[in-house]
Write a structure and sequence with these properties.
331 residues; alpha+beta; Cathepsin B, Chain A; 2 domains; 8-stranded mixed β-sheet; 10 helices; 40% helix
Length: 331
């Protein structure tokens, strides 16, 4: 229990003062929701962390959420730098918002980051993970949480001060009194399922694998157990799929306009629209944008060549006509 004493003494409750919200029981999901999910089976969850007496549990879970998100995106599962986040952000429940706005949503590997004298040095190492948007649940809704977790694990606040929570070993924890306390801890929801007819959330804690069920706890789902639905966040990388298509259409219009002779203005707009389509990190939009640029160069060169041929043809025609007139005047 030393770690809980350290957390409480550190004043975590002062910044985890979240008003209790009545849970919303509606769903308008178009996604197919399977009866169970465990992101561990997909190899995108790092081993259980042992925070010891450190109160930086928000930092730990935030880094774990980003690690899993990056692995799901197609990257390799790697350990992110907790120290990097600690150097930039306070250990508050909305720490992911700080990572997004102060660190640019980027995270370095644990092995790459070295603390410097510069406070929050964003150039200290090369990031391996990045996100550009943070979704935060506005109304406590465990049905929406089911929809979100299909994309990646969730970062959630909970009331972990309940004695039954602290000594948890196995099964589905469902003490209704746990919902009455203060949100004073965070967990990573890595899945869900049903055990003996009781739906649950599968949550990863940061109290070492010796705690709970090998570092995990199953909290009853659908009853806002331990206020698990009061603060829910998820990182994502958002792209506007419609915008590149629109930019491609306008680019093609300007390219053909250039081909028809409207040169300078069209070249400028073509370059701007082509490179607006580029996004970070690398996506196939790079290739499409590159194709458009190359095609534009071809059309421009072809147009210039066509103009040169027309000029040469007019010169030959005029020269021939003048020669014919001189010959005709001799007769």
């Amino acid at each position: 229990m030393d770690r809980r004493i350290e957390e409480l003494v550190s004043g975590s409750k002062s910044f985890f003062n979240i008003p209790s919200i009545e849970i919303e029981k509606t769903i308008s999901s178009k996604k197919t929701i399977p009866t169970s999910l465990d992101w561990r089976d997909k190899g995108v969850i790092t081993p259980v962390y042992n925070q010891g007496t450190s109160p930086k549990y928000s930092t730990v879970v935030a880094v774990e959420a980003i690690e899993s998100f990056q692995a799901i995106r197609g990257g390799k599962l790697e350990k992110g730098s907790i120290d990097q986040v600690s150097d930039c952000c306070e250990n508050t429940i909305d720490i992911l918002d700080c990572i997004l706005n102060k660190m640019g949503g980027s995270l370095c590997r644990e092995s790459d980051y070295k603390s410097s004298n510069i406070t929050c040095d964003r150039n200290a190492c090369q990031p391996f993970a990045v996100f550009n948007n943070l979704k935060v649940l506005k109304v406590a809704n465990e049905y929406t949480m089911l929809e979100w977790i299909q994309d990646s694990p969730l970062y959630v606040g909970v009331n972990a001060a309940d004695f039954g929570f602290e000594i948890y070993k196995s099964g589905v924890y469902s003490n209704p009194e746990c919902a009455n306390g203060t949100v004073d801890h965070v967990l990573q929801i890595v899945g869900y399922g049903i055990e003996s007819g009781t739906p649950y959330w599968l949550c990863k804690n940061s109290w070492s694998s010796a705690w709970g069920d090998q570092g995990y706890i199953r909290l009853e789902r659908g009853k806002n157990t331990c206020r698990i639905a009061d603060y829910v966040a998820q990182v994502e990388y958002r792209t506007n799929d419609a915008f590149p298509i629109i930019s491609y259409v306008f680019t093609m219009i300007y390219l053909f306009a250039d081909y028809l002779g409207f040169t300078t203005f069209c070249k400028t707009i073509t370059i701007i629209l082509s490179f607006i389509a580029f996004t970070k990190p690398f996506t196939f939009q790079y290739l499409w944008s590159g194709v458009i640029v190359v095609f534009g160069i071809y059309l421009n060169a072809h147009g210039q060549n066509k103009k040169s041929i027309e000029t040469y043809t007019r010169f030959i025609d005029n020269h021939s006509l003048m020669k014919f007139r001189r010959q005709s005047s001799n007769y």
